[in-house]
């Protein structure tokens, strides 16, 4: 199947219809908490992150509060989140920068965010799109997998996929489409056993039944 612009538009239309209420699964109450949650979500499920942040955020929901406990203490609090040593080190370093350079607030541009330790382009895209409605496409494992299978974008790296999706998806839908693709990856287009037989996109998907 050759995936034309018309087919891509139909794919996006159906994704929107099925996941119109899609929203972030990470739980947070302020800007800093979202940044921390997304950093913790690297190679960790959102469900696990929410368990960790439930004990973390009641007292450590500002850069100053988190910085005050230091790396070692933070490691113990996020130990069940995976990669906890590097995450703790990066978060403490980020807190220091946020206080010294930004007055304890989050910078509002992607370029500034990715300069923070442990904050990659995916994390920065999530933050700006969710918090401030800035058009951005965050390419996580679900977005990358589903987009390649649908041929919505064909890429070998998340960075390349982001550029492909920016061309395939109308700018005003970038942030929402990120969530549509995540939901589809979690519920239907799973990594090991995609549910192609019951997928509402199987007639528009060149990978249907071939994975």
Walk me through what this model shows.
The chain has helices spanning 5-18, 31-40, 46-56, 63-77, 84-102, 110-113, 121-132, 141-150, 158-168, 174-187. By secondary structure, it is mostly helical. α1 packs across α10 and α4 (63-77) packs antiparallel against α5. The model has no long low-confidence stretch (mean pLDDT 96).
**Mean pLDDT score:** 96
How many structurally independent domains? 2
Largest sheet: none
Helix content: 55-70%
Count of β-strands? 0
CATH homologous superfamily of the largest domain - what is it?
Hypothetical protein, domain 2
Name the CATH architecture of the largest domain: Orthogonal Bundle
Layout: helices, strands, pairs:
Elements: H1 5-18, H2 31-40, H3 46-56, H4 63-77, H5 84-102, H6 110-113, H7 121-132, H8 141-150, H9 158-168, H10 174-187
């Amino acid at each position: 199947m050759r995936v034309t612009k018309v087919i891509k538009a139909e794919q996006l239309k159906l994704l929107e219809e099925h996941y119109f209420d899609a929203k972030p699964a990470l739980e947070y109450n302020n800007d800093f908490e979202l940044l921390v949650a997304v950093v913790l979500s690297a190679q960790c499920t959102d469900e696990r992150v929410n368990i960790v942040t439930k004990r973390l955020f009641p007292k450590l929901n500002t850069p100053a509060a988190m910085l005050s406990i230091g790396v070692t203490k933070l490691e113990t609090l996020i130990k069940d989140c995976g990669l906890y040593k590097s995450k703790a080190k990066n978060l403490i370093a980020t807190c220091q920068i946020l206080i010294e350079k930004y007055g304890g607030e989050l910078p509002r541009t992607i370029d500034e965010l990715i300069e923070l330790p442990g904050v990659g382009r995916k994390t920065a895209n999530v933050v700006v799109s969710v918090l401030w409605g800035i058009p951005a496409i965050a390419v996580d494992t679900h977005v990358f997998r589903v987009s390649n299978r649908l041929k919505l974008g064909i890429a070998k790296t998340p960075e390349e996929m982001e550029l492909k999706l920016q061309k395939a998806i109308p700018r005003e839908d970038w942030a929402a489409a990120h969530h549509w693709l995540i939901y589809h990856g979690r519920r239907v287009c799973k990594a090991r056993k995609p549910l192609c037989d019951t997928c509402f996109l199987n007639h528009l998907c060149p990978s249907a039944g071939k994975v």
